[in-house]
Amino acid sequence: MILVFIFILSVYSADVFDYVDLFYGTENGGHMFPGITRPFGMAKVGIDVINSKYGDAYSGYALDGDINGISMMHESGTGGAPEYGVVSQLPFTGEFNNNEEITIGRTQQDVAKIGLYQISTTNVDIEFTASERSGFFKYNFKEDGAKILVNISHHLSAPSRPWWTQYFVNGSIDGELSGYTGYTTIKGGWGLQQPWTIYFCGKFNTNASNIISFQGSSQENDSHASSTTQDDSVGLVFEFDNDVFEIQSQVGISFISKEQACSNIDSQDDFYSLIEETKQAWNEEVFSKFEVETQNETLKSQFFTNLYGCHLIPSNRTGENPNWSVQPTYYDDFFTIWDTFRTLNPLINIINPVRGGEIIESLINIYKYDGWTPDGRSANQNGRVQGGTNSDIVMADAYIKNISIFGAEWQDAYSAMVKNAEIQPPYWYDPKAPDASTKQGRGALPDWLRYGYITRNYTRSVSRTIEYSYDDFALSVVAKGLGNEEDYEKYLDRSTNWQNIWNHDATASGKSYTGFVQPKNSDGSFNYTMYDPLSCFGCYWGDDEYEGKPIEYGWSVPFDIITLKEFIGDDETFIQRLDDMYELHGTKIADVGNEPSFNTPFLYNYVNQQFRTVELVRFIVDKFFQVGSGGLPGNSDGGAMQSWVIFALMGIYPIAGTTTYLISSPFIEHLKIKLDNGKDFEIKAHNLSSENIYIENIQVNNQYWNQNWVDHETLFTNGGSIDFFMTSEQKIWESGNEPPSPGHKTS
């Protein structure tokens, strides 16, 4: 007898929460946030840890170390350096001495489920949950002398990257026995933010008996504390009677005012009811849309855990921008669009088009009120463009997939895109890349407009050239849709500029083929100084390529693979070059933890060798994406990694800014997505097993299908289905047209 586990999630079932591992990706550089929040919630409540042997705690959390605060704001899965970790409480017992940092140690591993986080320490057990813009804490003290520390200077720091650390600027707190209000101003961080202020409002269900204020090394019995000294330690300690062993506290946050922070506290005053409301928010917006059947319990956890990780940032901060006189739709914490445009935003456009539309509205509003769309953004400020203005691709992807926007116009989106493409942003000094602004826009635009490529006068000349080309392709998509034929031709022509840095004669050590992207001088000659197509040297801000080797960036033109194939030569060479990218075939060039190679494993489809795509995608998933705290091969990058996994498990992959999905093969026997339009998208893998991973044939919408790609309208506009009929044998089943290259410009 074969025991088959079948799991189906419906709107009436919350069993899916048992399969979501909140500690997934918290180790090995994944930097995931395991605390409590709601989908795209502003409040992300979690612990902050110091003295961890695992290095800087980017999301606040680390497996070991000492807790020095439980704070209200975090980002998730980020590289660069930590942001936030502000508005903190810390319960403790014993004497308070501000000359020594107060920390608490855990007696066992933390426990976290959607809606509830639990910590055990020697003197107090801690539980907390969150609503949209507030947190709810429950402290159970094991001995008398209960105290709660509110240190308003608390924030995450970056000891290993001090040039990107945050600093406390100033702040103030006023307390009474039942609670407190105040503000904290912070500057710095990965985006080099100018000072920004967060307001807070805390309430206790039990009055304190005494309040101690502290600043620096001084302390006194007082209910007010403030400081204007950078990184001074300042705040209040609330002391409770010896017969008080349980304390509950609610904390609201706001960028607008203390009063709004108080109004942001959830009206639900029952701790456990708020947990259920948070779980329901996740179920209604995310998990109830999916029905999944699989025989593999581990795979089930992998799917739903990655799905959860796709809904943490950006943060919905509508009504919370202190710099705007009006408060339209607004999202913050894009960290960064460079990471998310390939897979996360296309996934959101399928499974949550309302959020997808709101993200576009937010990009438009940031352009209208701040002047430029962001690439990276935190604390209401743009900051750090790693390559191109890839918000252009996010907007094009939503536009071509008919994502609805309200309170904004597509013409405004296009105006923002044109500004990125035509106007150099004001200079903003970046010590890591002082050649041009990295705050917003295209810093290397003068070269782009003059030469049609970026020279080494600017850092990241190769990767910027590739990305500017993709961005201009995105402009051509929207221009065409808006009926602007002149702009369509202009930007389509500019999208071919990546070809200008393809050196047909360039060679790589140990490779029989020639032709790679390469830095180019202003006189049109190729620059051979410090050039190796198999190396990006530091792969960082001051190099020719950012987080990818030249050979990797050569594949990063998925809008124009026809031309790339012409440059490479024949199909056999195309296949050999793809094979050489991954250790499945004996060499390791591509970094699966960096986004420039997200598309690459699927490109065998362009030579109708889809079975090779299947082999490589499964190799990558099985080897590099595991379950558990170390399950990510690098930074989550705000959900970019998880969205890649979701598409891989479903068996389709989006080409961002187009309507094309490349077909691989599913890991799951049956999956159904309940689309917001009332229709369903369904995948069935017949005869799927660990051996039967290849496709015998497929049907799309119950019709025989001979192409290894499919378009968005066929699957999602009115619902759709793919039936995969699986086999254990490699097979070239596709006989139809190869995937389109909409950026290909014929002479």
Q: Overview of this structure, please?
A:
- Helix 3 (about 295-310) crosses helix 16.
- The N and C termini lie far apart (about 65 Å).
- It contains 17 helices and 31 strands.
- Strands 4-5-6-7-16-11-10-9-14 form a nine-stranded antiparallel beta sheet.
- The chain is globular, with a radius of gyration of 26 Å.
- InterPro entries: 6-hairpin_glycosidase_sf (IPR008928), GH-type_carb-bd (IPR014718), GH92_a_mannosidase_put (IPR005887), GH92_N (IPR041371), Glyco_hydro_92 (IPR012939), PNGase (IPR050883).
- Pfam families: Glyco_hydro_92, Glyco_hydro_92N.
- This is Glycoside hydrolase family 92 protein.
- One of its GO terms (cellular component) is cytosol.
Keywords:
Glycosyl hydrolase family fold; 9-stranded antiparallel β-sheet; Beta-galactosidase, Chain A, domain 5; 747 residues; 7-stranded antiparallel β-sheet; alpha+beta; disordered N terminus
Measured as a percent range, the helix fraction is: 10-25%
Question: Which topology of the largest domain does CATH recognise?
Answer: Beta-galactosidase, Chain A, domain 5
Number of helices: 17
Number of domains: 3
Distance between the termini: 64 Å
Principal-axis shape equals globular
CATH architecture term of the largest domain:
Distorted Sandwich
Overall strand count = 31
Mean pLDDT across every amino acid position: 96
Content-based structural category: alpha+beta
Q: Low-confidence spans: pLDDT under 50, at least 5 residues? A: 1-14
Tell me about the largest β-sheet.
Answer: 9 strands, antiparallel
Radius of gyration: 26 Å
Main CATH class of the largest domain: Mainly Beta
Order of the strands making up the biggest sheet? 4-5-6-7-16-11-10-9-14
DSSP strand (E) fraction? Answer: 15-25%
